[in-house]
Amino acid sequence: TVDASGRGASVINSRDVTEVFKRTGEAVKHVFHDYVRTEAMIPMRDGVKLHAVILKPSDMKDPLPFLIQRTPYGVDGTSRGFFFAARPELARDGYIYVGEDIRGRFKSEGEFVMSRPMADHKDPKAVDESTDAYDTVEWLLKNVPGNNGRAGFVGTSYPGFLAMAAGIDPHPATKCVSPQAPMIDVWMGDDFFHNGAFRQTYGYDYVKAMESSKETSEVDYGKKDGKPVDGYDYFLSRGSFEEDLKQSGSKELPTWKLFLEHPAYDSTWSSRGVEHHLNEVQVPVLSVGGYYDQEDMWGPQSEYNSLEPHDDKHENFLVLGPWRHGYWSSSSRHLGNVQYGEPIGKEFRRDIEAKFFGHYLKDESGFNLEDTASFQTGSNKWMRYGHFPPEGSQPTALHLRGDGNLSWGDVKTPAKTAYTSDPANPVPYRHRPIQPTYGEGSEWFNWLTEDQRFVADRKDVATWKIPVKKDLVATGEVIADIFASTTGTDGDLVVKLIDQYPDDDSDPKMRGYQLMTNEEIFRGRYIDGFNRPRAIRAGDIREFKWSLHDVDHVFKAGHTIVVQVQSTWFPLYDRNPQTYVPNIMTAKPADYKAATITIYSDKDHDSSLQVPLMNQCDAVECF
Ligand code: PG9
């Protein structure tokens, strides 16, 4: 360890940096700076020291701002998106880059707490990710010569949450933050739960990887007959999450314990919900999110929505695109099988991200985002909006009729649609075999773009369709509003909005393809509140209403809109026993029972999706 004044510092030359670029697959012809690399142990207000790597362009003439990324993934290597790998356009612009290991991770002292709750900032001794960011800036300003007195924070996913925390009660020198795919509430809609349904594979895998040691560990489901075990069989044979942990033979890890003991949205989780603190943000925020983010789709959307009412200075910006988790670091022109024609990640990094930091940290010109930039799928073009959803976006009911058809007009004939959901034979969320989340051969990254025909013939998946006669533009939030009953006393509902491509599509890979544009799960026991789980009375018709997130998509004429409803999405989500038990994490084998779910379509129980149409009257023929 050396101090930040440069004593004992090593120089990273441009060739090393080029190597880093190369590893990302990015063809970079020019590298602009050599860097002086130093390390420091930065003292926090409670005496704990955090390990940081500081990279200063060796050719710098004028003072430069700090661009800081705090992370639980280690700052020594180039893994998990340290600046050069994930953000070459920013690296080219010249900043003093700082990467810092958060408490308890890699070379930092202290204890790691998964998505550490916000502390009371009136207490001078309290620490959280916001105070650690503050203390880091304070130390850097005083100890790293050549800075211009300004700092910005950037990060994706966990580091995105850390960037957002740096903007809450920020250090006065912190001038802007860009939280990208931040987890904003790990219970409500990000990594660990969605609307109360537990993300079993993710919760198991990620916690094991992060909490088994100070560094990141591998997760493996083992082998059977010489082949890797399919995660579907692995979790099905184990039953409840409690049983799963028992059989894994692993020691009890702190966040697993939270899952077991706090399955509902109590203060354990709400204290980790960053959205509850966003009225305290006083710096410009550039939130970035993917329409196909398999981990933190909810975070950036809810962050933007929570900040918007307090945005008097118009400094709350949003960028959305058809990316999987963090995929704006790539310059790919496609996601899975879906082609976009242009390297949208590169355009975002060059035209928006680099300009945002240039503007707020160096007073450079060129940042011209008014509010939102969204890459609209279907039409495959960048759109700019003064607000999201834009003016003209109209929530329009798409009704689920009894005959398997959808209709834009009111339902005339009362009807019901029923299916039986059996926890012994749950619907897979992606095609099998299913590897551990981040393991070798895992198709976790692109599962949200998988062709849904792989489950379309199952009897426990209900389907509705409508042909698209004229191009339909949907921009805004999609809401599911489902009237349903069950023969059980608890249950889950999964609703998927799908764009089905025509059988003669010009791209052979896309012929008949069922591409989800929106999808989400809701756990029935939370119908009266996420902190108030309760049994549903068998046979009662109840209204279940929840968000399927934002969309910006053109359903083209000649395509078909499809809605699928099912009650399992396994093993990403644990199985609901469908019999009410106080804690699903500890359910017993006898609790898991098949149930028949009935969806109603009539005047008083109008099951539908609210689709945010931009050209409602024209496209729907003014019904
Ligand atoms: N999505 C990851 C994560 C963040 C926070 C909690 C759990 C997981 C990540 O990629 O950082």
TrEMBL record:
<protein>
    <submittedName>
        <fullName>CocE/NonD family hydrolase</fullName>
    </submittedName>
</protein>
<dbReference type="InterPro" id="IPR029058">
    <property type="entry name" value="AB_hydrolase_fold"/>
</dbReference>
<dbReference type="InterPro" id="IPR000383">
    <property type="entry name" value="Xaa-Pro-like_dom"/>
</dbReference>
<dbReference type="InterPro" id="IPR008979">
    <property type="entry name" value="Galactose-bd-like_sf"/>
</dbReference>
<dbReference type="InterPro" id="IPR005674">
    <property type="entry name" value="CocE/Ser_esterase"/>
</dbReference>
<dbReference type="GO" id="GO:0008239">
    <property type="term" value="F:dipeptidyl-peptidase activity"/>
</dbReference>
<feature type="domain" description="Xaa-Pro dipeptidyl-peptidase C-terminal">
    <location>
        <begin position="354"/>
        <end position="610"/>
    </location>
</feature>
<dbReference type="Pfam" id="PF02129">
    <property type="entry name" value="Peptidase_S15"/>
</dbReference>
<dbReference type="InterPro" id="IPR013736">
    <property type="entry name" value="Xaa-Pro_dipept_C"/>
</dbReference>
<keyword id="KW-0378">Hydrolase</keyword>
<keyword id="KW-0732">Signal</keyword>
<dbReference type="Pfam" id="PF08530">
    <property type="entry name" value="PepX_C"/>
</dbReference>
